[in-house]
From TrEMBL:
Keywords: Membrane, Transmembrane, Transmembrane helix
Membrane-spanning segments: 12-31, 103-126, 236-258, 297-319, 331-350, 362-395
UniProt KW Glycoprotein keyword: no
Biased composition (Low complexity): 593-624
Biased composition (Polar residues): 581-592
Keyword Cell wall biogenesis/degradation: no
Domain of life, source organism: Bacteria
Organism of origin: Schlesneria paludicola
Residue segments, region Disordered: 564-624
Recorded coiled-coil stretches: none
Protein name (Swiss-Prot/TrEMBL): Glycosyltransferase RgtA/B/C/D-like domain-containing protein
Amino acid sequence: MASSHSQDRCNPWLPLLAGLLLAAVALPLFVRMPLTNDAEMYDLQADLVRRGGVLYRDALEPNLPGVVWVHLAARSLLGPGSEALKVFDLAVFAGILALAARLVVLAGGSLAAALWTTVGLAGFYWSQSEWIHCQRDVWLLLPALGAVTWRIEAFHAGRALSHARRLGAATLEGVLWGCGVWLKPHVVLPAAGVWLASQLLQAHPASDSDSAEAPGEALPPDHALRPFRQQVVRSLWEFGGLFLGAGAVGALGIAWMVRSGCWPHFVDTAWHWNPDYFAAGKAHWTWDRFVPMVLRFFPWFGLHVVALAILAGGLWRPAAGSTTITPSRRAVLTLIAACYGGWLIQSFGLQHLFDYIHAPAILLAILLVSAWSLALPLPLIRLAGMGIALLAWWWSPMWQPARLKLWSVCLRGPVTPAVRDRLSHFRNPNRRDLERIAEFLRGQNVSEREVCFYNSDFVGMYRQMGLLPPTRYVYFYETVRFLPTHKDEILQAVRAAPHRFVVTDVLSAGIRADRMERLGPNGPLADVTAQPRGWTAGYPWSFPAVYRAGTYLVHRIDGPVTELSLPKTELPPPRTPAASPETTGNRSLTQHLGTSSLGTSSLGTSSLGTSSLGTSSLGTSSAP
C-alpha cells in the first residue's frame, strides 16, 4: 500500500470477510460476558433517579453525571439485563468504527484500508477483558472522533466558509466536545490539541514541494496567502463557536442538575470529597500496577512506541519533500496525531492506572499508525504495525479452545453464573458464590435497605435482588479505605442505616484464602467472628458471620455500630490471585499476571482495588 494506486487495487472483500468472521466468533462471547462494577454502579444510580432519588445525595459519586444520563437512555431504549447494555455498547463502538474508517479514507486510504483498520480496532476491543467494555472512557471516543471529523471537513472548506457558517460549524463541534465533557472532562486536552493543531495548519500552509494535489483535487482558495489578521479573525470565530456549543451543552446539563435537586450535593462532593479521592488515585501509580497493565494489553501496548515515533518524527510537517501527500491529507494525519497526543497526556498524566482508562489511547494508536502508514511511504512503521497486529491475533484469548467451547452456549443461552465466571478474564467476583449468598439472603426475607454489600465487587447484587444501598456510600469498603478522613460522616450514616446484614469479601482485608477454613465450611456458620489482624476492631468485622460462600461472608448486625474497622497501616497493592483452570480455562498468560488493578471498582470511576492477597492473619472466635 505504498501508493494510492496500489491501494485502489486492494480487494475490500478480504477485510470484509475477516471482519465478519471476527464478529461471528467474538460477539456471542462478548455479549454474554459479565458487566463490571462501574457499569453496575451507574445502572444502580440510574435506577435511583428513576425511583425519584437524587444523584450525589443518595450515592456518593465523584464524577459528572453524563454517564448516568447515558445509562438512563440505554436502559429506557433496551431494557434491563447485561446483554442489553452490551448491545448498546456495540452500537456505540460501531459508531466509533464508522468514524475511524471515515478518517482513514480522508487520509488517503482506500475502502479496503479503512475496513482493515476497523478489523484491527474491533480485534483489540472484543478480545480484551470485561473491564474495558461498557465504560465511558471508550464511549468518549464517539463524540471526540465525531468532533475531529467535523473539524477536518470544516478545514477542507477553508475560506469558502462565511463567518456565519464558520461559527455554525464550530458550534456543532463544540456541542460534540461538550457532550464528551459531561462524560469525562479530561477530553478537554484532546480537544485543545486538535484545535491548536488546526490553527497551526491554517497559519503555516504546506509549501508547493510537499503539497502536490492529486489529479482533480483543488487547493483551498486562500492556500497561497493567508494574512495574519484574517487568520486571527477566523480563529476567533471558531473559538467563539466552540465556546458557544460547549457552553450550551454545559448550561443544559447544569439546568438538569439544578432542577433534579442534585446540584448542591454535587458541589459538596466536588469540594469536600474529590480532593481525597484524586490523592488516593495518584498514590496508586506504581510500577507494581503499571507493569501488569502493560502485560494485560500485550502486544497492543507496543503500538504506543510506534505512534510516539510518528509524533516525534513529524507531527506538523509529516512528509517534507514528498509528492504523495496533499494538504487535505496532511491535515487529517496531523489532527489524528494531535487527538492521540492529547489523549495520551490526559490518560497518563491526570487519570488512574486502570485498563479501561488506557484502552482508548490504544484504539487511537491503532488508528494513527494505520492512517499514517497508508498515506505515507513509511515501510518500517507499516512493518511494525503489521507485526504487532499479527502477534495480537495469535495471542488473543478469543481463539483459545476452552473459550470457543462456550460459543454455542452463549449463542443459545441460558447463561448461568458458572458460564459468566468462565467468560470473565478475572477470578473476582465469583458469581457462583454470590448466587449462594443471594439464596441465603432471600431465605432471610430481606428487603429494601436491609443489606449492605461491603465490597464494590458486589454492587450488582442490589439490582439483582431488588434492594437499595442502606447508605450513600455504595462502594463502602473503598470509601472507608481510601477516604478515611471522612470516617465520622460514614460512621454516622451506618448508625442510622436500617440494615440487618452486611456481605464482605475477606480477601479485601488481606486475609489469605488458605486461612478461610478456620471460619468453617461453606454454608451456615455458628456465629463466627472474623477479625483481620491488619484492621482495627469495628464494623463490619466485629459482627458475627452467619454464612460463608467461598471467600464471602454474611455478617448479622446484632447490635449498635460503635466504630468503623479501618486498616492499621497502608495495605499492600491489591492483588487478585490467578484463577484456576476450573474457573477460567481460557485465559492467556498475561491475563493471569498481575491482575492487581482489576479486582474491584472504586467510587464509581476506577478500580482502586478490593481483592487483596495479603499476609494478614485471621483471628477467629465463637461469639458468646
